[in-house]
Design goal:
By secondary structure, this protein is mostly helical. The protein is 80% helix and 0% strand.
């Protein structure tokens, strides 16, 4: 009996040690089997991040336990969630290119306003004193033009107004064209068209450079033309007549709107080349992003 019990005891020990070895082997095999698909998933995820930067952003936030934008909205092109897509598009206004293009729009609008102030101011003299009665009492006197003098001043006002129109009309036309151009580039940026068609960025950079350089002769022509207008005998005669009656503000000099329009033109020389540089940088960045899938396929 003792020998048989001892024999059974040793046999149990052998079975238990054999079971432990088998479990240890299974434990060692199981992680390897699990690691293989895990490593495969990591390689696939790395390839996806190289193809689409938004996937890298999603995986980074997912590893940190923070929900990313790509997780909250299923896809950038998901039509079922237009609200998130609209918010993503509007983020373009906060980029450097969006801010620069918004400044171009505001600058063009200010040029139009400065030119429109002088364009809308005809400055024609009104002979109210010739109506008699209370008008003669309040608006007459030594400072009023009456009769032939009033007609002469009105004729000079009309001639001077027609004389000064061309530079302001051209300024408003150029400002309107630049404002339309700024709106077009903003719209293309909001809808991410430069990413789909990168040559648009090169065309935008070329136009920005040409516009920035074009401001230089435009400003020179603007001030030369204004100087010719204010040196015209019509302006000098008009100034003399108003000065004889003690009226001020009719001098043949540049006014505040003229100077402000020129300063905004100088700002255009600075802003548009900066926009061209930003467009070239964006083109280089987009081209690198589009070359990544081809590089992955060649590996």
């Amino acid at each position: 009996m003792p020998e048989s019990s001892q024999h059974h005891h040793t046999r149990d020990k052998e079975y238990s040690s054999r079971d432990r070895r088998d479990e240890y082997r299974e434990d060692r095999r199981t992680p390897d089997r699990e690691d293989r698909p895990r490593s495969h998933r990591e390689k696939q995820r790395y390839a996806d991040t190289q193809r689409d930067p938004r996937v890298h952003e999603a995986t980074r936030y997912h590893s940190q336990g923070v929900p990313s934008y790509t997780e909250t909205s299923s896809s950038y092109y998901d039509d079922s969630q237009p609200y998130h897509q609209t918010l993503y598009n509007l983020r373009y206004f906060t980029t450097s290119r969006g801010i620069c293009q918004a400044m171009e729009f505001v600058l063009s609008l200010l040029i139009i306003i400065c030119a429109g102030v002088n364009h809308s101011n005809s400055g024609r003299y009104r002979d109210i004193a010739s109506l008699g009665g209370l008008y003669q009492y309040y608006y007459g006197g030594a400072n009023a033009f009456t009769g032939a003098e009033a007609q002469k001043v009105q004729r000079l006002d009309d001639q001077f107004y027609q004389l000064k129109l061309p530079p302001y009309v051209y300024s408003m036309a150029c400002g309107g064209a630049l404002m339309f151009y700024a709106c077009a580039t903003l719209a293309l940026g909001v809808f991410r068209m430069p990413y789909r068609f990168p040559p648009l960025l090169l065309a935008e950079a070329l136009l920005d450079v040409l516009i920035g350089l074009g401001f230089i002769p435009a400003i020179a022509f603007y001030f030369i033309k204004l100087q010719e207008i204010y040196s015209n005998p019509i302006c000098k005669e008009r100034e003399a007549m108003y000065s004889s009656k003690g009226h001020r503000g009719f001098e043949c000099n540049l006014n505040g709107a003229d100077i402000a329009g020129g300063l905004f033109g100088v700002l255009g020389i600075i802003i548009f080349p900066i926009s061209a540089v930003l467009a070239i940088r964006a083109f280089i960045r987009v081209r690198k992003m589009k070359q990544r899938p081809t590089e992955d396929n060649n590996l």
